[in-house]
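Box 3.1 A note on notation
Throughout this textbook, protein chains are presented in two layers. The first layer is the amino acid sequence; the second is a C-alpha coordinate string describing backbone geometry. Keep the layers aligned when reading.
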Amino acid sequence: MAELITVQGDITTLRVDAIVNAANTSLLGGGGVDGAIHRAAGPELVAECRKLDGCATGDAKATPGFHLPASWVFHTVGPVWQGGGHDEDDLLEGCYRRCLELAKLHHVRSIAFPAISTGVYHFPPRRAARIAIDTVREHVDASGVEVVRFACLGTDTLAIYEELLQQPPRAPIA
Protein backbone atom coordinates (compact mmCIF):
# COMPACT_ATOMS: atom_id res chain seq x y z
CA MET A 1 0.00 0.00 0.00
CA ALA A 2 1.11 3.50 -0.76
CA GLU A 3 2.22 5.90 1.92
CA LEU A 4 -0.50 8.50 2.62
CA ILE A 5 0.78 11.62 4.36
CA THR A 6 -0.25 15.17 5.08
CA VAL A 7 1.77 18.28 4.37
CA GLN A 8 0.94 21.86 5.12
CA GLY A 9 1.73 24.52 2.61
CA ASP A 10 1.75 25.49 -1.03
CA ILE A 11 1.09 22.56 -3.40
CA THR A 12 2.98 24.36 -6.20
CA THR A 13 6.29 23.90 -4.36
CA LEU A 14 6.02 20.14 -3.77
CA ARG A 15 8.54 17.87 -5.48
CA VAL A 16 6.23 15.12 -6.65
CA ASP A 17 5.59 13.57 -10.04
CA ALA A 18 2.11 15.12 -10.27
CA ILE A 19 0.05 17.71 -8.47
CA VAL A 20 -3.72 17.90 -8.68
CA ASN A 21 -5.37 21.16 -9.61
CA ALA A 22 -8.80 21.88 -8.18
CA ALA A 23 -9.90 23.49 -11.44
CA ASN A 24 -13.07 24.95 -12.86
CA THR A 25 -14.74 23.47 -15.95
CA SER A 26 -12.94 25.83 -18.36
CA LEU A 27 -9.48 24.73 -17.10
CA LEU A 28 -8.28 28.25 -17.93
CA GLY A 29 -7.41 29.37 -14.41
CA GLY A 30 -9.27 30.90 -11.53
CA GLY A 31 -8.75 31.66 -7.86
CA GLY A 32 -7.39 29.63 -4.99
CA VAL A 33 -5.33 26.53 -5.82
CA ASP A 34 -6.21 26.85 -9.51
CA GLY A 35 -4.85 30.39 -9.78
CA ALA A 36 -1.72 29.55 -7.80
CA ILE A 37 -0.94 26.57 -10.05
CA HIS A 38 -1.48 28.59 -13.22
CA ARG A 39 0.78 31.41 -11.95
CA ALA A 40 3.55 29.02 -10.89
CA ALA A 41 3.41 26.90 -14.07
CA GLY A 42 3.62 29.89 -16.39
CA PRO A 43 1.67 30.94 -19.48
CA GLU A 44 2.36 27.63 -21.23
CA LEU A 45 -0.14 25.96 -18.91
CA VAL A 46 -3.15 27.99 -20.01
CA ALA A 47 -2.12 27.51 -23.65
CA GLU A 48 -2.06 23.73 -23.11
CA CYS A 49 -5.36 23.81 -21.21
CA ARG A 50 -7.04 25.60 -24.13
CA LYS A 51 -6.39 22.47 -26.22
CA LEU A 52 -8.31 20.28 -23.73
CA ASP A 53 -11.73 21.85 -24.37
CA GLY A 54 -12.66 22.03 -20.69
CA CYS A 55 -13.44 19.27 -18.23
CA ALA A 56 -16.63 17.85 -16.75
CA THR A 57 -17.29 17.83 -13.02
CA GLY A 58 -15.90 14.63 -11.50
CA ASP A 59 -13.45 14.09 -14.38
CA ALA A 60 -9.75 14.96 -14.75
CA LYS A 61 -7.32 15.81 -17.56
CA ALA A 62 -3.52 15.94 -17.62
CA THR A 63 -1.03 18.56 -18.76
CA PRO A 64 2.70 18.95 -18.30
CA GLY A 65 3.79 20.92 -15.22
CA PHE A 66 5.92 23.40 -17.20
CA HIS A 67 7.66 25.62 -14.61
CA LEU A 68 6.43 23.62 -11.60
CA PRO A 69 8.64 21.10 -9.75
CA ALA A 70 5.98 18.49 -10.67
CA SER A 71 6.18 16.92 -14.13
CA TRP A 72 2.39 16.70 -14.42
CA VAL A 73 -0.71 18.63 -13.43
CA PHE A 74 -3.94 16.66 -13.22
CA HIS A 75 -6.79 19.14 -13.52
CA THR A 76 -9.98 17.93 -11.87
CA VAL A 77 -13.30 19.67 -11.42
CA GLY A 78 -14.92 19.11 -8.05
CA PRO A 79 -18.60 19.59 -7.38
CA VAL A 80 -20.14 22.71 -5.92
CA TRP A 81 -21.83 21.80 -2.62
CA GLN A 82 -25.61 22.06 -2.97
CA GLY A 83 -26.63 20.38 0.27
CA GLY A 84 -25.64 16.80 -0.60
CA GLY A 85 -28.60 15.80 -2.74
CA HIS A 86 -27.03 16.38 -6.16
CA ASP A 87 -24.50 13.52 -6.38
CA GLU A 88 -21.79 15.69 -4.81
CA ASP A 89 -20.17 12.77 -2.96
CA ASP A 90 -19.99 10.60 -6.10
CA LEU A 91 -18.65 13.46 -8.20
CA LEU A 92 -15.96 14.23 -5.64
CA GLU A 93 -15.01 10.56 -5.45
CA GLY A 94 -14.72 10.63 -9.24
CA CYS A 95 -12.14 13.41 -9.03
CA TYR A 96 -9.79 11.34 -6.89
CA ARG A 97 -10.41 8.12 -8.82
CA ARG A 98 -9.79 9.77 -12.22
CA CYS A 99 -6.57 11.38 -10.98
CA LEU A 100 -5.29 7.98 -9.88
CA GLU A 101 -6.22 6.57 -13.28
CA LEU A 102 -4.19 9.37 -14.90
CA ALA A 103 -1.34 8.57 -12.50
CA LYS A 104 -1.27 5.00 -13.80
CA LEU A 105 -1.39 6.17 -17.41
CA HIS A 106 1.53 8.60 -16.89
CA HIS A 107 3.60 6.31 -14.61
CA VAL A 108 3.34 8.68 -11.64
CA ARG A 109 4.84 7.37 -8.40
CA SER A 110 4.13 10.41 -6.20
CA ILE A 111 1.12 12.70 -6.26
CA ALA A 112 -0.20 15.62 -4.20
CA PHE A 113 -3.89 16.41 -3.79
CA PRO A 114 -5.39 19.65 -2.46
CA ALA A 115 -8.66 19.57 -0.50
CA ILE A 116 -10.80 19.53 -3.66
CA SER A 117 -14.08 21.52 -3.56
CA THR A 118 -13.64 22.75 0.03
CA GLY A 119 -12.83 26.35 -0.85
CA VAL A 120 -15.22 28.48 -2.89
CA TYR A 121 -17.24 25.35 -3.79
CA HIS A 122 -18.13 25.01 -0.07
CA PHE A 123 -17.98 21.20 0.23
CA PRO A 124 -17.90 20.40 3.98
CA PRO A 125 -14.19 19.86 4.79
CA ARG A 126 -14.54 16.77 7.00
CA ARG A 127 -16.89 15.07 4.55
CA ALA A 128 -14.58 15.91 1.64
CA ALA A 129 -11.52 14.60 3.51
CA ARG A 130 -13.31 11.32 4.32
CA ILE A 131 -14.19 10.86 0.63
CA ALA A 132 -10.63 11.75 -0.44
CA ILE A 133 -8.97 9.32 1.96
CA ASP A 134 -11.42 6.47 1.36
CA THR A 135 -11.22 6.82 -2.42
CA VAL A 136 -7.43 7.03 -2.46
CA ARG A 137 -7.12 4.01 -0.17
CA GLU A 138 -9.47 2.03 -2.41
CA HIS A 139 -7.79 2.87 -5.75
CA VAL A 140 -4.13 3.72 -5.03
CA ASP A 141 -2.71 0.22 -5.30
CA ALA A 142 -4.03 -0.23 -8.85
CA SER A 143 -2.49 3.13 -9.85
CA GLY A 144 1.14 2.31 -9.04
CA VAL A 145 1.43 5.45 -6.92
CA GLU A 146 3.77 4.92 -3.97
CA VAL A 147 3.37 8.24 -2.10
CA VAL A 148 0.22 10.36 -1.78
CA ARG A 149 0.51 13.76 -0.17
CA PHE A 150 -2.60 15.57 0.97
CA ALA A 151 -1.52 19.21 0.71
CA CYS A 152 -3.41 21.23 3.31
CA LEU A 153 -3.28 25.00 3.17
CA GLY A 154 -4.66 25.68 6.65
CA THR A 155 -4.16 24.11 10.05
CA ASP A 156 -7.86 23.20 10.38
CA THR A 157 -7.76 21.14 7.18
CA LEU A 158 -4.45 19.60 8.20
CA ALA A 159 -5.92 18.50 11.54
CA ILE A 160 -8.92 16.87 9.82
CA TYR A 161 -6.71 14.89 7.43
CA GLU A 162 -4.30 13.84 10.17
CA GLU A 163 -7.18 12.61 12.35
CA LEU A 164 -8.88 10.68 9.53
CA LEU A 165 -5.64 9.10 8.32
CA GLN A 166 -5.19 7.60 11.79
CA GLN A 167 -8.53 5.82 11.52
CA PRO A 168 -8.63 2.34 9.94
CA PRO A 169 -9.91 2.06 6.39
CA ARG A 170 -13.65 1.66 6.07
CA ALA A 171 -14.84 -1.76 5.00
CA PRO A 172 -16.11 -1.85 1.41
CA ILE A 173 -19.87 -1.94 1.02
CA ALA A 174 -20.91 -5.37 -0.28
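The radius of gyration is 15 Å. Residues 3-166 form a domain with the Leucine Aminopeptidase, subunit E; domain 1 fold (CATH 3.40.220.10).
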